[in-house]
Write a structure and sequence with these properties.
Elements (H helix, E strand, L loop, with lengths): L1 H21 L17 E8 H4 L8 H17 L4 E3 L1 H8 L9 E10 L9 E7 L11 E3 L2
Length: about 140
Amino acid sequence: MRAALLRRSTDRESRSAEMSTTKGKNPAGKPQRSAIADVVAREYTIHMHKRLHGVSFKKRAPRAIKEIKAFATQAMGTTDVRVDPQLNKKVWECGIKGVPYRLRVRISRRRNDEEDAKEKLYSYVQAVNVKNPKGLPTVIVEE
């Protein structure tokens, strides 16, 4: 019994070591992707109601901003996310507890021109005015 447990733990350790070494490598023959070529803009519909379910009223709008930033980070792969003031106004339009059920946003991945920037790219999130954001697909926007 003890030998089997020991064997299992060493198997896990060796598997995790293999995964950590192959994670950063590119397969042979594939060129390294350039961050500069990754400048793109897309329009998304974010379902805020499901993301804020169970959040107390006095924390809904601040949490909504955090959820928008988390969505942009996941969608664009950048940790530096900047929110447009108009989007902030749209979230806070009906007060701290009256966040819209859905928001249509344009997320643009842009070059960071600052010299001492940690990352080459950042995401900029803007509100898009639509009558009803329900059911709209994700669209790539040509800028």
